[in-house]
Each structure stands twice: as C-alpha cells, then as structure tokens.
C-alpha cells in the first residue's frame, strides 16, 4: 500500500504553533476539520504534544516519538524515531504528523502533503512550524474564513507536485 504522509497543523502568520505546551487559539471549525481528517488514521507526534492532550486521540493509532527509552503510556505506541513510527503505518493510506515543532521540522522534507490552517495574526510562542519549502510543495486549495471581526484564517491544502495523488479534501 502506498501511503501519503500528511502534516496537519495550525500556525500563525509568524509560524507560531504553541506556547508553554498549549495551543494559543481555540477554533472549533479547525478542531472539527482535524478530527474529520485524522480519524481512522495513524497520528505521529512528539512526547510534548502527546502530554498536552488529555488522553490518546480516539479512533486513531497514536504514535509518540521520544528519545526517552523508558517512556510509556496506555493507548500509545512509543518510538525512538520518525522512521520507527512510520514502520507502524504501512497499512495506513494517510498517516498524519500532528506536531510539535521539532517533529514538523524532522518530517517537512519527507511529507507528501500539508494540511495547514493559517491564523492571520502574529502570536508570541515557543513552538514554531517550519518554513514550507516552496520548491517542493504547491498550493492546491485555499479557503479563507472569518473567525471574528478582527481575525481570519485560511484552510490551506498543499502537496508535493511530484507525488500528488488527487484533489485536496473539501472543507
């Protein structure tokens, strides 16, 4: 089975994705989109991202990448590397990378697709989404939505043209 490794993230205009191991914003439409896209797929994340969640994400194979060889938690698979995590996804048509910043940086060059919610505001934070290599990825769809009177966001679908396998998901 060929799988399409997909990064999914929400980032501010200055690429902030979090602060103190927490999301900065609460955007219900984006959370619904995240759940719809990732349900019944593997989600690969770093330890800090996992620890920011109240529990393993339901209806997903939760894979946590950490250097801590003694790390363990119910409902997850613990791996020492991205490669080891991906080895658990061989039968998944679209495994997702869900963060955090270090994991995104390690996978941006091997991903086939990016599902990015861009929040059009600058934020202070300590976790960042990496720059998207424009020579590798091509914008295939963008939908702009208003959050409130002074904020807007875009739901952006980006894929690697050489591996593109169809149309992006409708939102």
What is the rounded Rg? Answer: 15 Å
Helical coverage, percent range: 10-25%
Instruction: Please provide the count of β strands.
Output: 10
Order of strands in the sheet with the most strands?
5-4-3-6-1-7-10-9
Q: Which class do the helix and strand fractions yield? A: alpha/beta
N- and C-termini, Cα separation: 26 Å
Distinct helical segment count:
4
Estimated share of beta-strand residues: 25-35%
Instruction: Provide mean pLDDT, rounded.
Output: 86
Query: What is the succession of H and E elements?
Result: EEHEHEEHEHEEEE
Largest sheet: 8 strands, mixed
Give a quick rundown of the structure.
The chain has 171 residues and is α/β, with parallel strands linked by helices.
3D structure, described in words:
The protein is an alpha/beta fold and 171 residues long. It has four helices and ten strands; from the N terminus they run E-E-H-E-H-E-E-H-E-H-E-E-E-E. The strands form two sheets. It has an eight-stranded mixed β-sheet, sandwiched between helices. It has a two-stranded antiparallel ribbon with strand order 2-8.
What characteristics describe this protein?
171 residues, alpha/beta, 4 helices, 10 strands, disordered C terminus
Topology:
Blueprint: E1 6-12, E2 16-18, H1 28-38, E3 42-46, H2 47-52, E4 61-65, E5 77-79, H3 82-87, E6 96-99, H4 101-107, E7 113-119, E8 127-128, E9 138-148, E10 151-159
Parallel strand pairs: 1-6, 1-7, 3-4, 3-6, 4-5
Antiparallel strand pairs: 2-8, 7-10, 9-10
């Amino acid at each position: 089975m060929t799988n399409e490794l997909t990064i999914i993230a929400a980032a501010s205009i200055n690429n902030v994705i979090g602060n103190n191991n927490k999301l900065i914003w609460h955007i219900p439409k984006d959370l619904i989109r995240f759940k719809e896209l990732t349900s019944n797929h593997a989600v690969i994340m770093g330890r800090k991202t996992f620890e920011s969640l109240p529990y393993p994400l339901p209806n997903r194979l939760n894979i946590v990448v950490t250097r801590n060889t003694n790390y363990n938690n119910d409902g997850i698979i613990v791996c020492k590397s991205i490669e080891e995590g991906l080895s658990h996804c061989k039968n998944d048509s679209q495994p997702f990378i869900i963060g955090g910043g270090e994991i995104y940086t390690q996978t941006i060059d091997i991903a086939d697709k990016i599902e990015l919610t861009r929040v059009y505001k600058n934020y202070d934070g300590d976790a960042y989404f990496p720059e998207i290599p424009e020579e590798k990825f091509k914008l295939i769809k963008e939908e702009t939505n208003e959050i409130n009177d002074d904020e807007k966001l875009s739901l952006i679908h980006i894929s690697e043209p050489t591996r593109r396998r169809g149309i992006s998901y409708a939102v």
